[in-house]
Structures are given as C-alpha cells and as structure tokens.
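Researcher: Quick test of sequence recovery. Tokens follow.
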C-alpha cells in the first residue's frame, strides 16, 4: 500500500502519478471487499450484483441479457444463470421483447431496488459529502479522470482477458 493510500493529500499539495495510482488501488481494493460483503448480505454473488446494478442504472428502462453479459464480462449463457438467480431472489422480472420474442428484457423489482439502495445509500451520501470539499472545477477534473480511467479499464479487460 502506498503512502497516498494511508494519508490524504490536500488539494494545495502536489502528488505524483504513483500517489494517485496507489490511492486508486486502495480504493478499488476496499470497494471490492465492500461489494463482496454487500452482495453476500443480499444473498447474491458479485457478478449477480454487478448485473443488478446495471439494471438499476437503466432507471426503469428494460435491459437486455446481452447488455448484462457485456457489463459483467460473461457469456450470454452465463447471464441466463445470473438472471435465474436474480429472478428467484425477487430482484428482477424478465419479459420477452415485443419486437423480438427471442430477446429478453429485464427490469428491477421495485422492492428489491429499494433494498439495494438502502445498502448503498449511506455510502453514496458520504461520497457526496466528500465531493462537497471540492470546487466544481475540481469535481470536473475528477469526473473526467474517473470516466477515462473506467474506459481504459474496460478496454484493457476486453483486450487482455
């Protein structure tokens, strides 16, 4: 663990790329452990939770099984198992696409969405409070960096795994 992972660097101090990467490594590791615990507490696997989170992010719009396969980096066959577990657990509902009966459209069960939001809500509140310490320009830089780092990570994953 780098020094940046154990101490905060105030916005007026300088930091190196190594400091930022070390802090990111610590954040990712902590979030991974947290996601495993959240999933376990909800009776899900991490991949199940990733797929359900994608369904929630669609904000009521149906998501296809293919969308979920891409998001979770699994085959469409594996998504069938994930959807079976999510449906049995009362997290999602599957419906045939009226335009193409071969496609499945997935939506969240409102009560399950509320259960998951109750778990994540306090964490997101704390993150919002942390963001309040930064100016809109600093938040814009953070958002840009995180968005670009996410795209880089997805590309690296697709090309390397």
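Model:
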């Amino acid at each position: 663990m780098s020094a940046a992972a154990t101490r905060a660097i105030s916005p007026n101090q300088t930091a190196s790329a190594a400091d930022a990467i070390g802090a990111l490594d610590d954040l990712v590791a902590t979030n991974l452990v947290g996601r495993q615990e959240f999933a376990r507490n909800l009776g899900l696997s991490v991949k199940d939770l990733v797929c359900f989170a994608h369904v929630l992010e669609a904000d009521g719009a149906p998501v296809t099984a293919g969308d979920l396969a891409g998001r979770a980096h699994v085959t469409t066959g594996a998504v069938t198992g994930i959807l079976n577990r999510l449906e049995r657990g009362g997290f999602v509902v599957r419906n045939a696409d009226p335009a193409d009966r071969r496609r499945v459209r997935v939506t969240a069960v409102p009560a399950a969405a509320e259960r998951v939001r109750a778990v994540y809500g306090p964490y997101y509140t704390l993150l919002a409070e942390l963001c309040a310490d930064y100016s809109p320009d600093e938040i814009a830089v953070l958002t840009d960096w995180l968005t670009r780092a996410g795209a880089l990570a997805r590309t690296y994953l697709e090309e390397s795994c």
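The first helix runs from residue 3 to 6.
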